Amino acid sequence: MTLVAPPEVADRDVLVEPGSRPAPRVVRLPVALLYGALAVIAGLTLLPFLWVASGSLRSLDDIRSAPGAWLPSEVTLDNFVRLFATEGFSTYLGNSVVVAAIVVAGNIVAASAAGYALAKFDFAGKRIAFGAVMAALMVPYTATFVPQFVVTMNLGLVDTLTGIALPSVALPISIFIMRQYASAIPDELLEAARIDGAGEFRIFFRIFLPLAGPALATVTIMSFLAAWNNFIWPLVVAQSTSTYTLPVGLAATSRAANNVTDYGLMLAGAIVVMLPVLVLFLFLQRYFVQGVAATGLK
Questions:
Q1: Mind listing the domains of the chain with CATH numbers?
Q2: Which of 70, 182, 231, 252 would disulfide-bridge 119, Cβ 3.0–4.6 Å?
Q3: Predicted model pTM
């Protein structure tokens, strides 16, 4: 077949078949321009966090006199000192850690087992079970709030840390992530293990879980974030200050005299709440990105 080069692309030595269209030209942005745009977007995203960090270092009078100021007129750590000296703060922090640990452990165990079973086992009702997981993802949280509280009350778990953590120990999004990741693991690898005499539990613990590190990191971050930042559910379930989690406790103690909000104390509390999430993400960032890319989560 004779190939000819159209005049408009002859200088590039590109040969195309007669009657076919030349390939569309791809416009590439300069690298400096691309990085500059990303830096601007990142800066805009960080602005609220920078204002919170600045406000936590300002006195209450300074915040009231100039609420929109970006820099404190005088740097002070008094807000953090008062926060850690607040009665019950250590209890609130400990409760949040316990609840987050229960939620993360529950999601890792339940989601990895359920996701592996949905991806690699054939059983009656498999499609129905996966459809139920997908349907649970689509149901708004507010639609299940009252039924969850009724079940929690009937189980006698109101005003307990277990009652606060129970609804989040097996999040549908965690099951979906683990199922998608397990589906990408070749069946031949598992069959080879079965031929060598490995049982299903050994395959699960010795082959699947080590390979599922990125997905487990994603589940860990998302479930920890859901438990650590949850406010409405602990506010309803916790009936006494002894079971308050950190967000609920900070909201309760940020009221100064005459029911006036202590913004300095609230901003310092926001920094304390954000730090564990940031540290966890920094440690698991590489695995989190791999897990999101492998499961197709957006």
A1: 27-76 (no CATH), 81-295 (1.10.3720.10)
A2: 182
A3: 0.77
